């Protein structure tokens, strides 16, 4: 007797079996290093690296860090001492980190134009990966990350968490009760989710760069060529670099690129779209400056089954109570306000959503996919990247969620899968 | 939006130049930018001079070209990639390339090369190759990037850098028949990462033979982590042949393996897991409760009902506990029935959980049975039963009060004492009556129990009876219990004098009784007592709106009696005789108006004696109102006469108080 498993079936099972409960340390101890602790290295030591999930993460031992800015390496080594890690390795080039055999996990804390290349190279170097959001700057890079992680049997964690922890931006509640409502079809199907800046971290929602930047001398402590890496070589300006790079198309996608995956990943999870992407993207935005990310009024992403995500860029829908979820049977507003009668009673009678694997150490030690991994992370990052492609094109387009290409639209494809400056293009395809 | 502009301001400062935000600029120039549509670009394509002018305008050193010009050029670069503009792609590319080659400023070259990326033609031209060899690092790098940008060459295969990737590729090359053996071997690798690669491949497919092989492997394993990996793998590939392994895992000594087995099975097949639940719950230990509970919560209510309702009686106490808890969470009606069974179970823990559930779910129909259980129970179970009755009575007071009263009628003395204890915790008038009857009955033991109940009464309704007992009950023990009860309430309740001072005054005037207790009660009920509080009021003027007469004696200055005319008489029945010596009256006081009034007292409601008035010298009404004292006078009735309002014919009394000083 033979049992066959279709891809779809597999993905559904994977989605449902995101698992489990915390496994006691005694189960895992047999696999740990002599020090009984996994090791980590930080790639990039800017602002985001200083947070609790990277520098401040205490479940693994920090043994190395790198940054193309010598001042940041210096600062990192000093903090490592203060934090009790002693003398750790500090360097400029992340390839030196990847070559270290005793590094188990790399934390990628760089600007987004590096995320894809570094994740791929880290997977090829046999490292497990904890990567900042957005997962990649282009859809093409994301696809390669998925392939590389899978090929090398690596565990990948994307650094967003709202689908399983913390409040869903602007919704005044965790995602879990909303998931319960949605997966039990209380609102019907298909659903439309509308988010505005309240769900998009307000002040960052329309993050933009600056036009008319006159080139500046490169600071002595910075390897600008390495900072740019796979991005086109452009003249140095402080505003393009640390802290403000998000406003430039070469490195990120403005506020949407920066925070979009935080608030759209829960939406994708709610809409059960962890294994697919929108097929149609419509946009209402002013023509974009070729260098600098501008703003948008409305972006609508539509899935094959009719589910939609609406990004309210000018807050014109704020009066309707953004964020909200609407379906043929009802509507849900923040704090679980709804036009569905007796919602609380209905909720009490519903099964809980499947729990998720949320202990990264356990994921690594049992080789279980983390709750937010290279596959579902790729899909939610693709939602963001499709919206950004539409902004740059200044028009709508159709997308094939299987081939991961635009449908008969070479102009869109150029943004979907951009080439990298050498040697990085060869490094990830070599 | 304000924050957004603050941010922009901070960005400017960071940059150190007077640059402009792209978003701000976009909004400012929205009207101009909207002109860059297909029609505009079609016209540009047809106008060579205009295109040349555009390129010339864009060719400014050091990225200083007008942003509108650059955006217009970028839009045109997009346009020539679309069907409508495709015919002009080559022309634009040639012009951009020529402008690039001719430009003396490296930044102009960079600007045009960046546009050429999106125009995408002619990437293999000699001109571009020349630029790729440019001395300027940035220009060369950009030209090199552009040369490759549109190359649609086939992507090379995934590299085999790591042992993990090599293992994966090696196994994928194997025919299906040999794959399982290779995976089993890889799974044994000391590096768990290699085992992980094997699991990732194994979870994609597998036949019954493979399942058997993995089940046999599982049986040989000692490491819980590796066992869990196989369980995960079975679940992830939806392997319905793996149930024997799940059953074995459920009996594992290691809690983590058992947990993983529950979660894997429920993820694999909810119906199958639910059908096995009765056997799981029959032998469930208390330590395993959290493991099974998490998995069960993922089942829908219908599956839970089917699995648990009829098999519940066979479950272990822990199994029953899990079932009860889940049913309670889901508001399943059967939870109440199960809890009713549980409360009489031999297992005390289960009985207690049942009783605790009933605190929230028991309704009127369950009242007699739970009260019957109270009469059978002992120790902690009796206490929990009583707690349940009290909690249920808070939601369904009439049913539980009636049931206690009914049970009391039929109960023996010992049970009556239990019921009196329960009645005290429930409180309320019907049970108070039963308790008072018992307190004054011939059965001394029962009377003592009743007095104790009154002393412990959950509300203050027993105070008048307790005052009586504390002074006049023939049994000294009862007197002490009653006094202690009053003292307990007085310690908790600040308004006891205001509320029950009149009851004390009534009793105080009677001769005899326990003088020591009288003195103690006098101390408790010391100070002035508002003897008209919440007493019956009769008026002779029509009431305006909702401003009823009772409002003037409700202790709340925010409510008032509005009488439709003056003079107006408000007569208050004091419900007993009091010695009265002070008053306080508050009228409407939002302007400078005056109310003339007088206060009269009477022993019979017919003959009245004036004790206070402001007729001779009326002062404007204030929020403090009018206070005064007069010589003590006994009264059964009081009357407030409002003679005149200086502002209009109506009368408005916010509060009227009469005091009896107790010393």
In short:
The complex is a heterodimer of chains A (430) and B (663). By secondary structure, chain A is an alpha/beta fold.
Characterize the structure shown.
The complex is a heterodimer of chains A (430) and B (663). Chain A is of the alpha/beta class. Chain A has helices at residues 7-16, 25-28, 70-82, 94-98, 112-124, 139-151, 175-183, 224-228, 254-270, 343-348, 360-366, 374-393, 410-416, 424-429; strands at 39-43, 61-66, 89-91, 105-108, 128-132, 156-159, 192-195, 210-211, 280-284, 298-302, 308-312, 324-327, 330-333, 337-338, 397-400, 405-406. Chain A has 14 helices and 16 strands. In chain A, helix 5 (112-124) runs parallel beside helix 6 (139-151), helix 9 crosses helix 12 and helix 12 (374-393) crosses helix 13 (410-416). The two termini of chain A are 42 Å apart. With 663 residues, chain B is of the alpha+beta class. Helices cover 57% and strands 12% of the residues of chain B. In chain B, strands 2, 3, 4, 5, 6, 7, 8 and 9 form an 8-stranded antiparallel sheet that branches. In chain B, strand 6 and strand 7 (608-613) form a beta hairpin. The two termini of chain B are 69 Å apart. Strand 8 of chain A pairs antiparallel with strand 1 (20-21) of chain B, so a sheet runs across the interface.
| Low-pLDDT residue intervals, each spanning 5 or more residues of chain B | 1-18
User: What is the global morphology of chain A?
Assistant: globular
As residue ranges, the low-confidence spans of chain A are 1-13, 18-34
Which two chains share the most extensive interface? A-B, 95 and 118 residues
Helix/strand/pairing category of chain B:
alpha+beta
Q: Measured on Cα atoms, how large is the radius of gyration of chain A?
A: 22 Å
How many β-strands of chain A, per DSSP? 16
